[in-house]
Design a protein that fits this description.
Length: about 425
C-alpha cells in the first residue's frame, strides 16, 4: 500500500492532504448541484420569472454574464497566483464570496428578477474562479502518470458531496410540502442549506492543503507583468499546439456539457412535467452515477489513455442527447439522465487531468486559468444557444436539446487531431532548467 502511495502521490504529499484537496470538490458540488442544476434554475424560470417564455433565456444570459467575468479574469488571477504563490489565499476569498452569495439567494422571491440575477452572477463568478484555483493544485499533489486517478478521486467525492447536499434539501422540501408550503417558501431555505454544507465541508481544505509554490520575483513592470505574462501565454500557445487544440476541443464539448448541467431541471420541468421533488430525486440518482463514472474512468484513463477516454465519453454524450430528445415518458428520461451522469463524471475528470498532463510545471496555475477560460466560454455560448432556441421556438425544449448534440460532434472532430504524447513532450521541454 505504501509503495502504491509513493507511485501515486508527489514527493512530500500525505494521503490526508489529498483527501483535503478532494474535499473541496465535495464542498462546492452542492452549489452547482442545487443552484445550477436541480433546484434554483427551475425555481428561477417558474417562480422568479413567473413562467415567462423568456425565462430560460434570462437564466442562461445571467449565467453568461458571470462566465464572461471569469473569462476576463481567470488567466490574470492564474498568473497572479503563480507570481505570488497565492492559490490558497485566493481560494479562501472566492469560497467565502460564493457561500455568502448563495445564502443571500434565500432572499429571492417571485418577481425579484434584479436581485436574483445579481446574486446568481456573483455566486457563480466566485464558484467558477475557485474551481480553477483548486484544479491548479492537482499536478502538485499527484505524479504525472497518476493525475487521472487522483482527479477521479476528487470528482467522485464531489458528486457524493452534491448528493449529500441534495438529500438534505429533499428532506426539507418533503417536510415543507407536507406543511402545505409552496416553492417560494421552501426553495429559499435550500439555499441556506447549500451554503452551510459548503462552509463546513471546505474547512479541511484550508486546514491541510499546502501551498507548495514559491513566490517569484516580480518582473520588471510590476503588476503590469501579470497582464504581459498572460498575453505571452496566449500569444505563444503555438509552442504547445496540442494543449491549444485540446482547449478548443474543450470549448465545444463543454458547451454541450454545460448546457445539460445548467438546464437539466428546466428540461425536466418544462418538457417532462417533473415536480421539484421528482427532479431532486432524479439528480440525486444521477450524482451517484456521475460519482461512479468519475472513479471508474479515472482508473480507465490511466490505462487506455486520456484521449481514448474522452472520445468514449463524447460518444456517450451523443447517445444521451438522442435518448433525451426521444423521451416522452419518465422512464426513458431517467435512462437519458443516468447516461448523462456517467458521461459527466468521466468527461469532467478526464478533461481536467489531460490539461494538467499537457501543461508546463512552472506555469500550471496559468494554464489552468486558460482551461477555466475555455470552460467558461463554453458555458456562455452553449446554454445561451439553448435559451435562444427555446425563446425563438416558443418554448420548444426538445428542439433546443438537439442543438446540444452538435457541440459534441465538433469536439470529437477536434479531439481526433490531438497527439497527447507530443503535447506532453512539449510541456516537459518548456520546463525551466534547474541546477
Amino acid at each position: 500500500m505504501k509503495d502504491e502511495q509513493s507511485l501515486t502521490l508527489a514527493d512530500g504529499v500525505r494521503p490526508r492532504e489529498v483527501w483535503a484537496w478532494a474535499m473541496f470538490d465535495f464542498a462546492n458540488s452542492g452549489y452547482t448541484t442545487v443552484v445550477i442544476t436541480a433546484v434554483f434554475n427551475a425555481y428561477f424560470v417558474g417562480v422568479v420569472a413567473q413562467g415567462a417564455e423568456w425565462g430560460t433565456f434570462a437564466w442562461t444570459a445571467a449565467l453568461s454574464v458571470s462566465y464572461a467575468m471569469i473569462v476576463l479574469t481567470a488567466p490574470l488571477l492564474g498568473a497572479y497566483a503563480d507570481v505570488h504563490a497565492a492559490k490558497k489565499r485566493l481560494l479562501l476569498i472566492t469560497t467565502a464570496g460564493c457561500i455568502l452569495a448563495t445564502a443571500a439567494l434565500g432572499l429571492v422571491g417571485p418577481g425579484d428578477l434584479v436581485l436574483g440575477i445579481t446574486l446568481l452572477v456573483i455566486s457563480n463568478y466566485f464558484f467558477g474562479t475557485g474551481e480553477n484555483l483548486i484544479a491548479a493544485f492537482l499536478p502538485e499533489i499527484a505524479r504525472g502518470h497518476a493525475i487521472g486517478k487522483v482527479s477521479g478521486w476528487g470528482w467522485g467525492l464531489g458528486y457524493i458531496g452534491g448528493l449529500l447536499t441534495l438529500a438534505l434539501c429533499l428532506a426539507y422540501v418533503t417536510f415543507a410540502q407536507a406543511q402545505g408550503q409552496g416553492s417560494d417558501q421552501f426553495v429559499p431555505v435550500t439555499m441556506l442549506i447549500t451554503a452551510a454544507v459548503f462552509l463546513l465541508a471546505a474547512l479541511p481544505t484550508f486546514v491541510w492543503l499546502k501551498e507548495r509554490s514559491k513566490p517569484q520575483a516580480l518582473p520588471r513592470g510590476g503588476y503590469r507583468s501579470v497582464f504581459a505574462r498572460t498575453w505571452h501565454t496566449i500569444r505563444h500557445a503555438r509552442e504547445h499546439k496540442d494543449l491549444k487544440r485540446f482547449l478548443v476541443c474543450i470549448l465545444f464539448y463543454q458547451a454541450g456539457v454545460q448546457s445539460v448541467i445548467t438546464l437539466a431541471a428546466i428540461y425536466a420541468q418544462e418538457a417532462m412535467g417533473f415536480e421539484t421533488s421528482d427532479t431532486i430525486i432524479l439528480i440525486m440518482v444521477v450524482n451517484i452515477t456521475a460519482s461512479l463514472g468519475a472513479l471508474a474512468f479515472g482508473h480507465v484513463q490511466d490505462r487506455i489513455g486520456h484521449k481514448a477516454t474522452i472520445a468514449l465519453t463524447l460518444l456517450g454524450w451523443l447517445l444521451t442527447i438522442i435518448v433525451a430528445w426521444a423521451a416522452h415518458s419518465p422512464g426513458v428520461f431517467w435512462i437519458a439522465a443516468n447516461l448523462a451522469g456517467l458521461c459527466l463524471g468521466a468527461s469532467q475528470s478526464a478533461g481536467r487531468a489531460l490539461v494538467g498532463y499537457l501543461s508546463p510545471g512552472h506555469r500550471r496555475a496559468e494554464f489552468f486559468g486558460l482551461w477555466g477560460l475555455a470552460v467558461k466560454l463554453s458555458s456562455i455560448f452553449g446554454p445561451i444557444t439553448y435559451g435562444a432556441v427555446t425563446w425563438i421556438s416558443g418554448g420548444d425544449h426538445r428542439r433546443a436539446m438537439l442543438t446540444v448534440g452538435v457541440f459534441f460532434v465538433i469536439g470529437l472532430l477536434i479531439l481526433a487531431s490531438i497527439n497527447v504524447q507530443r503535447g506532453h513532450a512539449s510541456a516537459l521541454k518548456s520546463e525551466p532548467i534547474t541546477e
